[in-house]
């Protein structure tokens, strides 16, 4: 296959992200059409491709080889089943689905149809996170012993987010917690190369927003005794906590590193700390098409496209996406029961 024809389902912020990534930042593919959402006609016009009237029309196109699901997570299981039945390869945004049961259905549908299923995990494709992973793989910090991660938003930002994305109130979806924590949990797994064996979590919503689990704290146990703590909240008072949008601190036997996705990567060893990397800056909301912002998304798309052309599984497939959902679901089960939850579920 010389070039993979890609259709994008969804026309919101992430629809823009993947349409632009496919059209201008990825090799071996081309954007064919866009469907889904009230903004699809305008986005398609901007990209110079047709806007199909509905998802079924897009899936019926013979020139669409693969689809990107830039939709609410509660819509992805049914869309995956439809796409697989139509013989289309599928790239699902994270979290791939609200529950592991739905993840299993998606995996089974794609396996039965003989098409690839990939899941978006941009943390694995950022320049700064790849440098952090190299610190572990190269033995700089020694064997990992402990980790801490936090993703925190101020409540005013969360209110704006829910006002703009009404689908986030839908109880059938994974909510803001799943959308945020599926990044953190996958990254911890990727860094350690270990599986989670236990979770103990507390969860609540402190504000008056009609949405569950807006603040979650979890203690996560990995294989080989590695300890981790995860704090996810969208309810901090302004101005929020500095350097806390997506932060990871990893402590090894010999050294440690402190990483904030958009600000710094520092290494502590011996008697001092050293800043080893500082990423280029951009405005996330005002510059959706910034090449700096799109770099990890283009990396995700590139592996998806390459997997199709090379007739191999994607590096981050359905099982990897399921693992992140499983840890998040274990957090919610633990918070509900007040008990430690053992994995696998």
Q: CATH superfamily assignment of the largest domain?
A: Dihydrodipicolinate Reductase, domain 2
Portion in strands? 25-35%
Main sheet: strand order: 13-12-11-10-6-9-8-7-14
User: Which stretches of 5+ consecutive residues score pLDDT under 50?
Assistant: none
Number of separate strands: 14
What fold name goes in the CATH topology slot of the largest domain?
Dihydrodipicolinate Reductase, domain 2
Overall shape: it is globular
Number of domains: 2
The string of secondary-structure elements, in order, is EHEHHEHEHEHEHHEEEEEEEHHE
Give the integer mean of the pLDDT values: 97
Q: What is the helix tally? A: 10
Assembly type = single chain
**From the alpha-carbon coordinates, what is the Rg to the nearest angstrom?**
20 Å
Look at the helices and sheets and give the structural class: alpha/beta
User: CATH top level of the largest domain?
Assistant: Alpha Beta
How helical, in percent, are the residues?
A: 25-40%
Q: Could you tell me how far the N terminus lies from the C terminus, measured between alpha carbons in angstroms?
A: 39 Å
The CATH architecture term of the largest domain is: 2-Layer Sandwich
For the biggest sheet, the summary is: 9 strands, mixed
Task: Summarize the topology.
Blueprint: E1 4-9, H1 13-24, E2 29-35, H2 40-47, H3 55-59, E3 66-69, H4 76-85, E4 89-92, H5 100-113, E5 117-119, H6 127-137, E6 144-154, H7 155-164, H8 175-192, E7 196-204, E8 215-222, E9 227-236, E10 247-252, E11 256-260, E12 264-269, E13 272-277, H9 291-309, H10 318-337, E14 341-342
Parallel strand pairs: 1-2, 1-3, 3-4, 4-5, 6-9
Antiparallel strand pairs: 6-10, 7-8, 7-14, 8-9, 10-11, 11-12, 12-13
């Amino acid at each position: 296959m010389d070039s993979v024809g890609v259709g994008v389902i969804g026309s919101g912020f992430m629809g823009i992200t993947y349409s632009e990534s496919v059209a201008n930042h990825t090799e071996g593919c081309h954007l064919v059409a866009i469907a889904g959402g009230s903004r699809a006609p305008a986005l398609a016009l901007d990209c110079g491709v047709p806007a199909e009237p509905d998802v079924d029309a897009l899936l019926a196109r013979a020139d669409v080889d693969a689809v990107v699901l830039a939709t609410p997570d509660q819509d992805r299981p049914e869309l995956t089943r439809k796409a697989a039945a139509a013989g289309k390869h599928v790239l699902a945004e994270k979290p791939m689905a609200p529950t592991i049961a739905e993840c299993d259905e998606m995996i089974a549908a794609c396996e039965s149809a003989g098409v690839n299923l990939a899941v978006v995990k941009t943390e694995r494709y950022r320049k700064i996170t790849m440098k952090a992973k190299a610190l572990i793989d190269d033995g700089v910090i020694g064997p990992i012993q402990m980790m801490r991660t936090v993703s925190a938003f101020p409540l005013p930002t969360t209110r704006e987010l829910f006002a703009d994305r009404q689908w986030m109130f839908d109880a059938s979806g994974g909510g803001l917690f799943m959308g945020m924590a599926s990044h953190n949990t996958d990254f911890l797994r990727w860094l350690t190369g270990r599986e989670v064996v236990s979770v103990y979590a507390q969860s609540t919503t402190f504000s008056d927003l009609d949405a569950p689990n807006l603040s979650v704290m979890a203690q996560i146990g990995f294989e080989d005794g590695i300890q981790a703590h995860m704090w996810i909240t969208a309810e901090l008072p302004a101005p929020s906590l500095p350097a806390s949008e997506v932060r990871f601190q990893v402590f090894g036997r010999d050294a440690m590193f402190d990483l904030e996705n958009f600000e710094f990567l520092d290494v502590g060893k011996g008697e001092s700390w050293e800043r080893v990397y500082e990423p280029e800056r951009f405005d996330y909301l005002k510059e959706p098409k910034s090449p700096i912002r799109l770099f990890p998304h283009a990396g995700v798309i590139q592996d998806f496209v390459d997997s199709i052309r090379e007739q191999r599984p994607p590096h981050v497939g359905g099982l990897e996406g399921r693992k992140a959902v499983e840890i998040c679901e274990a957090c919610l089960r633990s918070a509900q029961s007040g008990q430690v939850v053992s994995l696998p579920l």
